[in-house]
Backbone:
């Protein structure tokens, strides 16, 4: 035996291992397998902070003139949390979560019952809901509701949910606006508008790329499963 340099491996987190497992189980899925899956997630958006790059043309002594003041609601700041779902056949309405944290009861009453259940009925047999392992999602009241409604759960993928790309598209669209939202209410309205304007073909393209993305995850991480 000779002394050799050890092979360097990547230490995978539990989330990475779950992603590899998901990728291995779904790399051979065809488009028809993804058709009844509703990919869902929550995301948090925030107002852009003032970067002091706005400029006005004024004369000396006109600093406080009304026409030279940028209106800003000091109480309108803060994040906006939204929930949405996408599938090959369409998407749900974007739900803006009012102030306060998302609890299991709110998740059931504001999302599962009014949004997911009708969507599942429209898709029909074979419908699958994909959600992450957030505490409200896995709470007993929500699991019981899904079971009673006959709504199946797809295997969870921590980092392969295509809706993450939709959030990125929405964020870029909001920040590229000529007039950025100044209050939480304006931001919420802008998010709903952007969501409704996303072409369905963009959503289809993201979901159709799932087999390729699964294979990329396996190639990148599948051979490095050190714990």
Residues:
């Amino acid at each position: 035996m000779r002394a050799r340099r050890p092979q360097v491996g990547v230490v995978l987190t539990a989330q990475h291992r779950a992603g590899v497992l998901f990728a291995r189980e779904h790399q051979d899925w065809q488009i028809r397998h993804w058709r009844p899956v509703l990919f869902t997630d929550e995301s948090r958006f925030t107002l852009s902070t003032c970067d002091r790059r706005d400029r006005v043309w004024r004369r000396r002594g006109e600093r406080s003139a009304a026409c030279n003041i940028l209106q800003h609601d000091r109480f309108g700041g803060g994040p906006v949390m939204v929930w949405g779902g996408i599938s090959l056949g369409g998407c749900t309405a974007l739900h803006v979560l009012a102030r306060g944290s998302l609890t299991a009861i709110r998740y059931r009453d504001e999302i599962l019952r009014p949004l997911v259940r009708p969507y599942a009925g429209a898709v029909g047999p074979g419908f699958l809901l994909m959600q992450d392992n957030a505490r409200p999602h896995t709470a007993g009241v929500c699991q019981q509701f899904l079971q009673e409604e006959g709504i199946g759960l797809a295997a969870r993928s921590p980092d392969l949910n295509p809706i993450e790309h939709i959030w990125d598209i929405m964020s870029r669209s909001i920040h590229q606006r000529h007039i950025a939202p100044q209050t939480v209410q304006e931001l919420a309205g802008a998010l709903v508008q952007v969501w409704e304007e996303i072409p369905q073909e963009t959503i289809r393209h993201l979901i159709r790329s799932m087999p390729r993305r699964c294979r990329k995850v396996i190639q990148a991480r599948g051979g490095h499963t050190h714990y």
Notes: The longest strand covers residues 37-46. The radius of gyration is 22 Å. DSSP finds nine helices and six strands in the chain.
